[in-house]
Amino acid sequence: MGNLQQQLQSTGDFLSISREHPWSLPETFQFEITHSASGNKSIAKVLETGIIVFEPLTQTSTQDIVLSCGVHGNETAPIEICAELVQKLILGELPLAQRVLFIFGNPASMNVAQRFVEENMNRLFSGGHSIDQGQGVGLINKERERALLLENTVRAFFQQGTELGNSRERMHYDLHTAIRGAKYDKFAVYPFLHGKPRKPEQLQFLLACGVNTILLSNSPTTTFSYFSSNEFAADAFTVELGKVRPFGENDMSQFEQVKTTLTRLVSGEDLQLKAFDEADFHIFTVAQVINRHHENFTLNFADDAPNFTDFTKGYVLAIDGENEIKAQQDGEAIIFPNAKVAIGQRALLTVVPSALNSEI
Ligand SMILES: O=C(O)CCC(=O)N[C@@H](CCC(=O)O)C(=O)O
Ligand SMILES: [Zn+2]
């Protein structure tokens, strides 16, 4: 048994090991876990830094679940939540009922407490890692290599589930926190489904996680959640769990619901979902995707205006070079505004209230 494996099996601290080896581990390995409460066994496979799979050995699983965090390295609350789940699984303190792939997306950017090192990894999926996005960063950097590795890992994980031969469900929850505060603290982006119906039961799950606000995307993107949704028909979401804070500064009491629900999910306990009622949710659809095209790009509202601040029709939201970008409807609300994004990238979204499947 190598040193790393020994260290991991005694501490369960996969996050620290990943951060100590931010781009690659010196060894990969796998080991058996005996879960203390049930005596059931499972296998843990360390595939690369920040990438670990758990598979039940003595039970038949029915779900292939991807839980990713830290695709943006400074979004720490989801990283702490996943690190704790991984630790409890490794130490056998939590039962495992389903196949689960945990991904700590960008350990190097965690170490510098930044969103990314060279390039925003959540714009590099669905082949974005191999396309010149006009930012002058070239086609090769470590974040691009990592995005390709994550794509291949997710593809293999879902494929191996299919090879088990039973009827299975695929999910991917990509956990983030937002740069700004928000009127609705926890919200999720439901990727574009190309006309397929959106699933109320997924919203019930998100509600159990404390997420009652859903943004319906209506175009393809290069995000991780769209990749899993589009390529593998997984029920996939980008889940925003509050505001960015440094490691150790998160008020973990804000995350009890998501921790409890994810724990139940991986360990096969009843999720205790509330019956679906659309009135429990704030549902929005994307009205405008506003990309930055010019060096002189400014946002025309306060730096601390929270996500979901709404404007009246005609209000100038941003100035991009000579172009004024206006709210096109009364009540259009801003999401993820960031004037500092690289040229060519999304500088903000606007959303308007909607119903879950209104256009179907
Ligand atoms: O608060 C912000 O400005 C960004 C928070 C964040 O990282 N959001 C994701 C959303 C991805 C999606 O649209 O599905 C991102 O921008 O990558
Ligand atoms: Zn993020």
Termini separation comes to: 55 Å
Structural class: alpha/beta
State Rg. Answer: 20 Å
Task: Give the integer mean of the pLDDT values.
Answer: 96
* β-strand number: 16
Low-confidence stretches: none
Please name the CATH architecture of the largest domain.
3-Layer(aba) Sandwich
Strand sequence of the main sheet, in spatial order?
1-2-3-5-4-6-9-7-8-10-16-15-12
CATH class of the largest domain: Alpha Beta
**Percent helix range:** 10-25%
CATH topology of the largest domain: Aminopeptidase
Bound molecules: ligand LFNQLBSZ, zinc ion
SS strand fraction: 25-35%
Q: Give the SSE string.
A: HHEEEEHEHHEEHEHEHEEEEEEE
Number of domains: 2
Cα shape: globular
Task: Give the helices and strands, then pairings.
Elements: H1 3-11, H2 14-20, E1 29-34, E2 41-48, E3 51-56, E4 63-69, H3 76-90, E5 99-104, H4 107-111, H5 142-163, E6 169-178, E7 186-190, H6 200-208, E8 213-216, H7 224-232, E9 235-243, H8 256-267, E10 282-291, E11 297-299, E12 310-311, E13 316-320, E14 323-326, E15 332-335, E16 346-353
Parallel strand pairs: 4-5, 4-6, 6-9, 7-8, 8-10
Antiparallel strand pairs: 1-2, 2-3, 3-5, 7-9, 10-16, 11-13, 12-15, 13-14, 15-16
Helix pairs in contact: 5-7
The chain binds the ligand O=C(O)CCC(=O)N[C@@H](CCC(=O)O)C(=O)O and zinc ion.
Residues 72, 75, 176 line the site of zinc ion (ZN).
Family: Belongs to the AspA/AstE family. Succinylglutamate desuccinylase subfamily.
InterPro entries: AspA/AstE_fam (IPR050178), AstE_AspA_cat (IPR055438), Aste_AspA_hybrid_dom (IPR007036), SuccinylGlu_desuccinylase (IPR016681)
Organism: Thalassotalea marina
